[in-house]
Amino acid sequence: MLHPKKVGTLPVKGSDEQKQTNEIGMFTALLDAIEIKGKLITADALLTQRRLAVYLVQRGAHYHFTAKGNQTKLQSDIALLFEGRAVPALVEVSPPDHGRIETRRIWCSEALKGYLDFPHVGQVFLIEREVFHKKSGKQSLEIAVGLTSQSKAQASAEQVLAANRGHWTIENRCHYVIDWNFDEDRSRIRTGYGPENVTRLRRFAIGVLTLFSDGKTSIAEKMSRLNRNTRLVFDYLRMTKNSTRQAAA
């Protein structure tokens, strides 16, 4: 899954197109170092860009993108297709969790494959996410549209929904850790490229902590142990002669 900058950080100087180009350049450089053939790459709306789609398909991967305000024509075209939608391709209801019941519905279509001004479209989709809060009795409804290079033969409605849900599960978990453990929303770094650069460093730190996680210790606990203990950090990263992975466990 590809992460652009955290939503809510202040923009850097320059146009939207410049920021998008920088994001794509960074992630393609990252992907250059790994094998992605046969993989499905999911990304936020900021990275729903033609150049990235071409790059992924040329390397033998598939994309799963969300269409939002930065691609208004793309978003409106997909939404128009599903106006007056009838029976969904799939309905998925999650068991009650934290006092809420979540219902997800998905519609998929290959009708826009030759119409959309976007490369390698296999199918488009619309997802409704309805949440019922048992305690308050309130309901909320979110609608998202997107597209993927996978055709219906390559990805069923169930698989498309699972890919979308998996992306946002990881994204939300990462945002929660950043907000709760790094208190990013109260950060006073507000000028130039500072907000973007610092949030990338935080994401990198979370990645490292997760990579060597034993599944028993939380990110917060690991951060507490490593805080202001330079030697333990070096041991954790296996940067010293006698370091072991268990040093920070």
Walk me through this protein's architecture.
Strand 1, helix 2 and strand 2 form a beta-alpha-beta unit. The protein has 7 helices and 6 strands, in the order H-E-H-E-H-E-E-E-E-H-H-H-H. The protein has a domain of 171 residues. The protein is 38% helix and 18% strand. It has a 6-stranded mixed beta sheet with strand order 1-2-6-5-4-3. The N terminus and C terminus are likely disordered. By secondary structure, the chain is an alpha+beta fold.
Low-confidence segments, given as residue ranges, are 1-13, 15-21, 245-249
**What is the element string, with H for helices and E for strands?**
HEHEHEEEEHHHH
Distance between the first and last residues' Cα: 27 Å
As a percent range, the share of helical residues equals: 25-40%
Specify Rg, calculated over alpha carbons. 20 Å
Rounded mean pLDDT score: 79
Gross morphology is: globular
Structural class by sheet pairing and helices: alpha+beta
Biggest sheet overview? 6 strands, mixed
Separate helix tally: 7
Strand order of the largest sheet: 1-2-6-5-4-3
The oligomeric state is: single chain
Question: Beta-sheet strand percentage?
Answer: 15-25%
* Count of beta strands: 6
